[in-house]
Amino acid sequence: MENVIVSWSGGKDSAFVLYKLMRNQEYNIKGLLSTTSEDTERLPMHEVSTTLIHAQASSIELPLFEVALPSNASNAIYERTLQQQFDFFKNNGTYTIIYADLFLEDIKVFREQLLSQAGMNGEYPLWGRNTSEVAKEFISLGFKAIVTTIDTEKLPSEMVGKPYNQSFLENLPEGVDPCGENGEFHTFVFNGPVFQHPIPFTLGGTFETVSGRFLHIEIKPS
Hints:
Layout: E1 2-7, H1 12-22, E2 27-37, H2 50-60, E3 64-69, H3 75-91, E4 96-98, H4 105-118, E5 121-123, H5 131-140, E6 144-151, H6 166-170, E7 185-191, E8 201-209, E9 214-221
Parallel strand pairs: 1-2, 1-4, 2-3, 4-5
Antiparallel strand pairs: 6-7, 6-9, 8-9
Helix pairs in contact: 3-4
């Protein structure tokens, strides 16, 4: 079995790839890896509290390795901090990071360069899959997720905070990827087959980032 770490955003794609790995006897999942903001104590872009990410890991019963970075971290600081985490993984016998990327080549190239410098490998089990099929399978498996973030240039504001379900997919504007792979939206998964129990939460108000382009909804642990 290959020891692996799963890159974890708390959203649907990382939950879906984790589900696939858990049913593959070739992999020994050693934990989850999340990059967070030490200033806001949230996951950047998803803007989900790190408390909820830790709650997910607890319900999944896997250790969470959190790499906290200052909000204004340079690429050099980002890369150096991740390299230190990768060194820890290697020293404990893990050389592979699993990513849930679907088709964005530039992101994959960036990851591969960073991993190569650290003497690590990347694997992409969902790469090249039809995103409509991924979205439908995710929902059919019984996963439950909330849309935490939308790009207001791509989606109407009323879609933030909606459940990620068939109705949400049917109401997506033309040209929006059903998995939000181009950054149109992000999600938080709170229940499904990888969890031992649901993640309790309540919805709060909305807030904006990046000069109002991205609209988020507050998800509060409960």
